[in-house]
Structures are given as C-alpha cells and as structure tokens.
Amino acid sequence: VQIVESGGGLVQPGGSLRLSCAASGFTSGIYAMSWYRQAPGKERELVARITSGGGSTNYADSVKGRFTISRDSAENTVYLQMNNLKPEDTAVYYCAVRRGKYDLNYWGQGTQVTVSS
Fold this sequence. Notes:
The chain is an all-beta fold. It has no helices and 11 strands. Strands 2, 4, 5, 6, 9, 10 and 11 form a 7-stranded mixed beta sheet that branches. A 4-stranded antiparallel beta sheet has the order 1-3-8-7, with no helix packed on it. It is globular. The model has no long low-confidence stretch (mean pLDDT 94).
C-alpha cells in the first residue's frame, strides 16, 4: 500500500491551503480516510475523518467551520480544504487510511503546514 500527501507549505494567518492524499494498493476497499496533525511537543490529534459509502464526516472542534474534508472515492483520494488558518494550526499533517471499521490506520509520511506572518 502507498499513501502520499501533498499541499503543505507556509501561509499567513487568515490564508488557505488545500491538502491532498492519494491512497493506492487497498484492493479490498477503504472504510475511512482521515487527517491527523501533530504539533511540536504535542500528541497527534484527529483533525477530520470521512467514511466511504455515505461519506459521513466528523471534525475536531478547533477546526469546525474552517476546514472541510472531501473524498474522491473513485480515485481513493481525500482532500482537506483549510481556510482562515491560524498560527495554532501549525503542525505536520498526516493522512490515515483504514480498511475496516476496527482496523488500524495506515499512515502517510506527513506534510508540514506552517501558519506565520
């Protein structure tokens, strides 16, 4: 399996970024795709998740109303549109893919997002 993230970078507060994650090799299907983030000295936290089928989503309270997760199921690709970015959003963002509801996550290598003036 392979998970490749892209789209990170440096942005000023109030700006926007769009992260992409492409998953391949999951021949038995995918239950959910998620974005996590980890800031220096902090634990990794769930940012947003989207499931296959009905496409239900859930978000961390800190990003609700600012971030939107979406998925192209045909391409096994997930996106994270991040608007009104704040310095506290600075972190390495990781894409996670889960084959089944109770399976462990497969992880991407991460992409750095830095929000600074």
